[in-house]
């Protein structure tokens, strides 16, 4: 672990520049503070003192870019699987129960050819199942 005195000197000399850079990348004060704090925690846990102040700024840049990538990936995944209604938010057991119900309705001999499975699902979700 790095000595407290050395870490404090690094913090005092570099914090304002590091936080400014993180704010430019991320646009949010809270996220910028989180990134800079994480970097100082990693530096504190390491036995190696950064040789230059440029090291800390590069660490901020890389951490910000990683956070931006992570946010973009999260948004892309969220767009791939939109929650369209309350049924999408139900626990998996409830969803499986609904699918079993639909399968049973479709395989019933008296099932009307005019009634589609989707209509059966809508009836079930609206409480109109028989």
- Helical residue percent band: over 70%
Range of strand content: under 5%
The oligomerization state is: single chain
Total strand segments: 0
Overall 3D geometry? elongated
List segments where confidence is low: pLDDT < 50 over at least 5 consecutive residues. Answer: none
Instruction: Give the helix tally.
Output: 5
Mean pLDDT: 78
- What's the N-to-C terminus distance? 68 Å
Measured on Cα atoms, how large is the radius of gyration? 27 Å
Characterize the biggest β-sheet: none
The assigned structural class equals mainly alpha
**Order of helical and strand elements:** HHHHH
Protein architecture, described:
The chain is mainly alpha-helical and 130 residues long. 72% of the residues lie in helices and 0% in strands. The protein has helices at residues 4-26, 29-45, 53-80, 92-107, 117-125. Helix 1 packs antiparallel against helix 2 (29-45). The longest helix has 28 residues, at 53-80. The radius of gyration is 27 Å and the shape is elongated. The relative contact order is 0.09. The mean pLDDT is 78.
How are the SSEs placed, and which strands pair?
Elements (H helix, E strand, L loop, with lengths): L3 H23 L2 H17 L7 H28 L11 H16 L9 H9 L5
Helix pairs in contact: 1-2, 1-3, 2-3, 4-5
Summarize the structure.
The chain has 130 residues and is mostly helical. Helices cover 72% and strands 0% of the residues.
Question: Any key phrases for this structure?
Answer:
mainly alpha, about 130 residues
């Amino acid at each position: 672990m790095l000595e407290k005195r050395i870490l404090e000197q690094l913090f005092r000399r570099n914090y304002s520049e590091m936080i400014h850079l993180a704010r430019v990348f991320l646009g949010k004060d809270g996220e910028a503070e989180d990134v800079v704090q994480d970097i100082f925690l990693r530096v504190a846990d390491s036995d190696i003192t950064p040789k230059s102040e440029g090291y800390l700024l590069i660490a901020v840049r890389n951490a910000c870019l990683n956070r931006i990538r992570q946010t973009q990936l999260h948004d892309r995944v969220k767009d791939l699987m939109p929650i369209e209604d309350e049924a999408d938010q139900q626990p998996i057991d409830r969803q499986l129960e609904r699918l079993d119900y639909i399968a049973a309705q479709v395989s019933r001999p008296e099932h009307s050819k005019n009634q589609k499975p989707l209509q059966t699902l809508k009836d079930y979700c609206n409480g109109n199942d028989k």
